[in-house]
Amino acid sequence: MNHKLQQHFTFLESQRAALVARVRNVTPEQLNGHQPGAWSLSQVLAHLIASEQLSVRYLKKKIQGIESAPNTGMLETLTMWALIVSQRLPLKFKAPKVVTENTPTFSDVHQIIAAWDQCRHELKDLLSAFSEDQLNRQIYKHPIAGKLNIQQALRFFREHIIHHEPQIKKLLKQQ
Question: Is the N end or the C end of the chain the one with fewer CB atoms within 10 Å?
Answer without folding.
Answer: C
